[in-house]
Design brief:
Chain lengths: 444, 524
């Protein structure tokens, strides 16, 4: 398709023009000075992330301060300004103040990524987004599920969130871009669900055990979503649970009671080398079923890159993920095209903060005869805010992934997002460090 | 085989069982082994073999299924085996270290070609669930590859101070005949490791595998001989305790490598100390014994990691690992939450047959083990409080219900004796220092765990703990050759680290060589 590259650049430039003049780096939410120090020093960066991670488990401001000092003590060449601050931690009377300030800093940062402690808190934010032309999907953060009781609690929270949102959303103003595509109406209520939270029995070497157990909790959720007219999106996590998640979702949606609803979706992770085969499996299923509403496929790069790499290295397995960013980006674009070509059997959501990947999807969609409303774009709360606003301003359907939960529950999410998006490879980092638009839009 | 340099050591990768295509191969491998049952395990002394059926090994999950019919070595066979080993030693010690190493590497290749078949045998003979059985075979391969390389390095000797007019050299020589007496819980890896260490350094070996797993022992000898270890240098004596005792007492056995219980280990140590008529060397005992392994959980621990780490360490393979977690010492501030979560997780452990993928708690090795573990569980119920018990368990097979107990008095036998089964206790402590006081009072010191995030706490525990292997923020089992050299201190063993850089030193004696190079006042 010779016209593709020029169109990608046109779209990209148009979107970029809608960005605020200076794009904030995602880690600016942390103390700017600390992060500037941290970005130069790997050890210091590790210490700060370990500190952020432990804050919710600390019992008092004093405990927070002690942890901060002990992490910083591990760093070989502590910058003198930070070392001076840490000496405060040695003064017993001053410690609580330092601890309280540090904990407040972490909490402030968390609030940028997490829209509220409960769905009720979140509703205000979700409505404000909607009014600005931005749809949302709610993700309930939780601690790991290791017991059946915890799985039941999570399933109950999901049901409750669907109910609460279903009670709220009818009062929202009409937003035609967000509510209909060529396959029909799109639910206003949209929840993202993690299978690992619905069962304590996910085992990589025996997926069927976890599938059976999770099915018992997922079915009631699907039923309620169907009756409320809500969309349920099943998130994907690490490769260890991928088989269980995909099999479970496709099998359940095949059950007779779910033939005509709810609207549901799965995730495809482009960083996996075998993601094209995964997509083929999904498309085969979608083609056979011709389900209405169609299954939505959310294409992401994938958020467990470090985990996959470390696990494979420790076990001596072939690396399941692309190790070179350009390979991953190329695969993302190839999967985008396959998905767009597969409509209307599936609905498509492109979830990326990479301006090139997003522009590519929009351009390819247009050139292959699609309408803009047949392509959904998704971003993460707190990381993709600028892109979200640019997309909405240009009339695209953008949906923001909105985590909801308390600080303890959110910490794993927060640390993962921070680590992933502050890496030197990330698009946001490149964008924030002032690379030229032309370069950002170049084919991978 | 040319003696080109060996590639750098890397652990044998375990099966990627998260892939359906890999899992699909297991059933066929098990059917292949089942078709051969019962296996015949002979006494093998040099080139000669004697079949017999004095000893039967059976499937712990289906006790009527006989896995192997083994000959039990008689007293005269013990004598013959040691005599053969003495003869074999004379030739094997003269084989260059590189050639010995090459034989071990070929034995590793033999096992690598039969990985699934060997794992399937462990599934049957010892009820090891697939992932654990596979890991055991990989570890056996690792030992062969690792010690092969280490022995070549050791053969170069050690540098000494040199002055004009004399030449000083230090070499490491094999000690002679080594008896290897091994357990059933790592039925290929542990005997293979001890045997490989002895052979790599030029000793001849008589292997006495556990009476519960003679067929696994046979496979090790087959691998080594297929790799080119001369039959006289590796003999197999299946049998019970009397065979091991006969080997320990034999005047020509110079080294005894033993892994097993404290009681037997102490008895071996005692017997080995007695000089026998005709004995020319002080016997050396390498002992890897029991454990009463504690996991400390501090108030700042990430329970999302601690709970699976603890439950996996305590219950995988029904707790039948010397490294398994048996006591949790948890900070008061988070004790309720941890107990609730560990109990909930233990309550849904998958108890089942070893051959079923997903099984976490298989049957224990034999009836006596089940009865012993059940007695400890009953004691825990009467002296404390049971907070989780995954029942019912299958009727057929030696199953024990995974159990979590709390509120036990400090002097309870459940807290102080090695149970070697799926029974975990949890105790509250005031802080990490209190936990370390508890750990410090135990005579065992094999593995230990710590879940804590403050680096100061980690340093404190590391400096104070007596254990041989301390694991921080992860499970406490699954030591890898070359990465986690394994072995305990105090009554858990004599501190040598299997799969570590110093292990081979236990199988050799150093010889210092000094030659005067001055002739008529000239250095020549």
């Amino acid at each position: 398709m010779p016209e593709l590259e020029p169109e990608i650049h046109r779209v990209g430039e148009q979107l970029a023009a809608s960005f605020p003049s200076s794009v904030r780096h995602p880690v600016r939410a942390l103390d700017a000075r600390a992060m500037e120090l941290a970005s130069r020093d790997r050890e210091l960066r590790a210490a700060l992330f370990r500190f952020v991670d432990v804050v919710p488990a600390c019992r008092s401001p004093d405990d927070v301060a002690r942890h901060l000092r002990d992490f910083v003590d591990e760093v070989p060449d502590v910058p003198s300004s930070l070392a001076a601050a840490m000496r405060i931690a040695d003064v017993r009377a001053a410690r609580p103040a330092l601890g309280a300030a540090a904990a407040a800093g972490v909490k402030h940062m968390a609030h940028r990524f997490i829209v509220g402690e409960t769905p009720r808190d979140a509703v205000k934010v979700l409505r404000a987004l909607w009014e600005r032309g931005v749809a949302s999907t709610v993700d309930l953060l939780g601690e790991a599920t290791v017991t059946p009781a915890e799985a039941n609690v999570y399933a109950g929270r999901c049901l409750e969130a669907l109910e609460q949102l279903a009670a709220e959303t009818p009062g929202w103003p009409e937003r035609p871009v967000l509510e209909r595509d060529c396959s029909g109406p799109l639910p206003r209520v949209n929840g993202s669900v993690k299978i690992s939270a619905l069962t304590p029995l996910l085992r990589a070497d025996a997926p069927s055990i976890g599938e059976r157990d999770a099915a018992e909790r997922l079915r009631p959720l699907l039923r309620r979503a169907r009756d409320l007219g809500a969309h349920v999106h099943i998130d994907m996590e690490s490769l260890d649970s991928r088989e269980a998640v995909l099999e479970l979702v496709l099998e359940l949606l095949d059950e007779q009671e779910f033939e005509t609803g709810p609207s549901a979706g799965v995730v495809l992770q482009a960083y996996l080398r075998d993601s094209p085969e995964q997509l083929a499996t999904v498309l085969d299923w979608a083609h056979d079923g011709s389900r209405l509403p169609p299954l939505q496929v959310r294409l992401v790069k994938g958020a467990y890159w470090d985990h996959e790499l470390v696990e494979a290295r420790q076990q001596g397995w072939p690396t399941p993920v692309f190790e070179v960013k350009a390979d991953c980006d190329r695969n993302f674009e190839a999967l985008t095209r396959t998905l767009l070509d597969a409509r209307p059997q599936v609905r498509i959501a492109i979830a990326s903060h990479n301006l090139r990947s997003v522009s590519h999807a929009i351009a390819y969609n247009r050139l292959s005869g699609g309408e803009d409303r047949d392509l959904e774009l998704q971003v993460l709360r707190g990381l993709g805010d600028e892109l979200q606003d640019a997309l909405a301003a240009n009339g695209f359907r953008v949906r923001t992934y909105c985590p909801v939960g308390d600080l303890v529950a959110g910490m794993a999410y927060l640390v993962r997002r921070l680590l992933e998006n502050t890496s030197n490879e990330s698009f946001l980092h490149e964008q924030a460090s002032g690379r030229a638009l032309e370069q950002l839009l170049t084919a991978p | 085989m040319t003696s080109t340099a060996l590639a750098r050591f890397a652990n044998e990768p375990v099966l990627e069982l998260r892939r359906a295509a890999v899992r699909a191969r297991l059933g066929e491998a098990l059917a292949g082994v089942d078709a051969l049952l019962p296996l015949s395990v002979p006494v093998m002394i040099g080139e000669s073999t004697r079949a017999g059926d004095e000893l039967l090994s059976s499937d712990p999950g289906e006790p009527e299924r006989v896995v192997a019919r083994a000959a039990a070595a008689r007293e005269d066979e013990v004598l013959a085996a040691v005599a053969e080993a003495r003869a074999g030693f004379a030739a094997w010690r003269r084989t260059p270290a590189r050639e010995r190493a090459a034989a071990l590497v070929r034995a590793a290749a033999w096992m690598r070609e039969r990985r699934l078949e060997l794992a399937a045998l462990e599934v049957r003979e010892c009820a090891k669930p697939w992932p654990e059985a596979d890991a055991d075979v990989c570890e056996a391969i690792d030992f062969l590859e690792y010690y092969a390389r280490a022995a070549v390095e050791l053969d170069a000797g050690a540098p000494l101070v040199q002055v004009p007019g004399e030449r000083n050299e230090l070499r490491y020589l094999p000690r002679g005949v080594a008896a290897v007496i091994s357990p059933w819980n790592f039925p290929i890896a542990i005997p293979c490791g001890m045997t490989a260490a002895a052979l790599a350094t030029g000793n001849a070996v008589v292997l006495k595998p556990a009476e519960q797993s003679p067929a696994c022992g046979l496979r090790i000898v087959e691998a080594l001989r297929a790799g080119g270890v001369p039959p006289a240098a590796i003999s197999l004596l299946p049998g019970e305790g009397d065979v091991g005792a006969g080997l320990v007492r034999h005047p020509d056995v110079a080294t005894i490598a033993f892994t097993g219980s404290l009681a037997v280990g102490l008895e071996i140590n005692r017997a080995a100390a007695e000089l026998q008529p005709g004995q020319l060397a002080i016997k050396r005992v390498i002992a890897e014994l029991g454990g009463k392994n504690c996991v400390i959980v501090d108030a700042d621990a990430d329970l999302d990691e601690a709970v699976p780490g603890i439950v996996g360490s305590a219950f995988a393979y029904a707790g039948q690992k010397c490294s398994a977690a048996s006591r949790v010492l948890v900070h008061d501030a988070i004790a309720d939450r941890l107990i609730e979560r560990v109990a909930g997780a233990a309550g849904v452990l998958v108890v089942g047959q070893a051959e079923q993928l997903g099984t976490e708690v298989p049957p224990v090795i034999e009836r006596a083990a089940r009865d012993r573990i059940d007695r400890y569980a009953a004691l825990a119920a009467s002296e404390g409080r049971i907070v989780a018990r995954a029942e019912p368990v299958p009727e057929q097979g030696w199953f024990c219900a995974p159990t979590v107990a709390v509120d036990l008095p400090p002097d309870s036998a459940v807290l102080n004796e090695e149970v070697f089964g799926p029974l975990l206790t949890i105790e509250r402590v005031r802080d990490v220092e209190h936990a370390m006081d508890v750990v410090d009072r135990l005579p065992y010191a094999l593995t230990g765990g710590l879940f804590a995030r403050d680096p100061t706490t980690v340093r404190y525990v590391r400096e104070r703990t007596p254990v041989g292997n301390l694991y921080v923020n992860r499970g406490i089992t699954g030591a890898k050759v070359g990465r986690q050299p394994f072995g305990g201190n105090r009554l858990s063993g004599n501190g040598l680290k299997a799969g570590g850089p110093g292990y081979l030193l236990a199988f050799v004696e150093p010889q210092a060589f000094t030659e005067n190079t001055v002739r008529h006042g000239l250095v020549v």
